[in-house]
Every structure is written in structure tokens, then in C-alpha cells.
């Protein structure tokens, strides 16, 4: 693998091809991927900085070139804290494990951001110098440690190739409104049914430590044809058995348990008896005991009320034989309350 550069100044209508700019030290090897690619680029301090994936050790490496002259021969790699290795054939020092190659510049703080895979999900890392990164304590999206497989169809969902862009401009120069985009495959479906998911992410800066740091929206979807209400933190593709429509937003679930206070891990589960499909949001371990199949970890709620939280209930509609979640004791007049799941975040 190697990298060439092309630049467009008219939003992709026309391009200038600069040719090959980055190659690795590996020799081509039969039946093995070698070299360097998967490049994420940001602009900072008058340079293009390219974060590249290196196959021989699965590390991310860093190269840069002046914005004024980014052609072949102008790119240099970071090697042992010096920019003295040529982009074409030079060596580079690998960044810390967990640092990904999809990067952006957060203009609010001047930090370089990258996405990685830790804690069983997509995590965010930040750096003041673009080289030394600190990982956010909580993942942006929780998938579940040890549960994800590229073998499709598979019993679990698959999330891959995450990137983030500014919600207003679509660039990698980020304001406080982002878009997180990734490839998504539902449980028990193959690659032919993969989707592109784009999620809005709103961020803010605090002068003091905040816990929790991340919340993912819990929504309730309704399929009138299937008489199914689905309470989930994941995107619901339009082709999933019919037309699911968003019925209510139910607050936010934490993507990691709060280490200071008791919490409950909630699973998104499914059961299909005959032609009827029923989704249920339940504490971890309850799905299997009641004949449901766990699809994903939806997130975490507090076991007791906390400032800025609200009660989250498990409800059931006997007429539609459908479980669902609600934030009111009367289950929004759609069914009867079965249990208190915990307390999720209002915002």
C-alpha cells in the first residue's frame, strides 16, 4: 500500500493530481498486505499533517508537508521526534497503540482529535501537539468488548470505518457541532446490507472535570405494520422489516458505567415468534433468561436518581404484544409499566 495526493479547490469538481507522496519501508510480500495507507489529513501551522496506518505493526504514523508546496519529495515523516525521514521510503515512529488514522482539528481548543477502538467501542483521543494523545475515559459508541466479528452474517452488530466531520462545513476543521459517520451492519445480516450511519454530536468545554462525559441518545421507534416499538441507541435502517419511524426521544444513556455511583447495563434484545417481532430493553442477563436474543449493549443508566437524570421504565402493550421503554410512569398511555430500569440522562 502507498499514498498519492490529489487536491480540489472547487469541492471535488476538478482535481490536481500530485502523484505518489508516501511509501513505506516494506517489500511487497505475496498474500500479505504491506505498506502504509488509510490516511487522515488535517491542516495546522501551515502544514498538511497526514496520519497513516502502517500494516506491519498496526500503528499509526505521521507525515507532513507545507501547504504551499505539498508535492512529491516535500513530505517528511516523524522519526524519533525529528522530521528528517522522506515520505517516499523513509521510516517513522509509530504513535501509541489505540491512536487511529482518522483525524480532525478541533478549532475551539486547537487540539488534534482522532478516533480509536478501546473499551469495546469507538473512543476519542485528543492531543495538544498532534503526537501525544490522551484518551477520553468513555467511548463515543459502545459496542461490547470481545463481541464484534467481521464474519458476516454474525450474531452481533458491526461498526467500522468511523470518521468525524464538522456538521456545518463537512470539513475536518471542527466547531462544537460534529458528525460521526461509520459503516453499520445489523446483527444476523451480511455485508450486502451494510449502511452508512451519520450521527450528530454536540460537544462543549468545561473548566472542571465532568462525569459522565458522553451520552448517546435513546430513541423509541414504531413500526405500525409489525406492531413493534423498538427502544434503542442504535440507528434503525429503513429496510428493517418495514418502516420504523421515530416516536419519542427518551434522554441519553451513558456509554460507560460511572465509577463513583452504582449503574445498570442495559441490553437491546429481540425475540421473534412466528411473524411477530418484539424488541425489549432490559438489564444485562435478563434477555437470555426470558427467551430473547441480545443484540447489543445499549448503554448504562444510574441505579438511583442523580442530578440531571430521569426515571426510565420498561413497559408492555398487551394489544400489540410489544415491549418498549418510557420516561413516564403511565408509559405514555401506550401500555402498562413492568419495571423501573434506572435513571438516564436528561441531556
The proportion of strand residues reads: over 45%
Largest sheet: 6 strands, mixed
**Roughly how much helix do the residues carry, as a percent range?**
under 10%
Measured between the Cα atoms of the first and last residue, the distance is: 44 Å
Shape: elongated
Counted up, domains total: 3
- Give the C-alpha Rg: 23 Å
Give structural notes.
- With 347 residues, this protein is mostly beta strands.
- It folds into 3 domains: 1-95, no CATH class; 96-205, no CATH class; 215-345, no CATH class.
- It is 1% helix and 50% strand.
- The protein has one helix at residues 286-289, and strands spanning 3-7, 16-22, 36-44, 47-54, 59-66, 76-79, 82-86, 103-106, 111-118, 121-127, 134-135, 141-142, 158-166, 173-174, 177-185, 195-202, 215-223, 228-232, 245-254, 263-273, 276-283, 293-302, 309-317, 322-326, 336-345.
- Strands 8, 9, 10, 11, 12 and 14 form a 6-stranded mixed sheet that branches. Strands 3-4-5-6-7 form a 5-stranded antiparallel sheet, with no helix packed on it.
- A hairpin with a 2-residue loop joins strand 20 (263-273) and strand 21 (276-283).
- It is elongated.
- It starts with a strand and ends with a strand.
- The mean pLDDT is 91.
Highlighted features:
25 strands, five-stranded antiparallel beta sheet, six-stranded mixed beta sheet, 347 residues, mainly beta, 3 domains
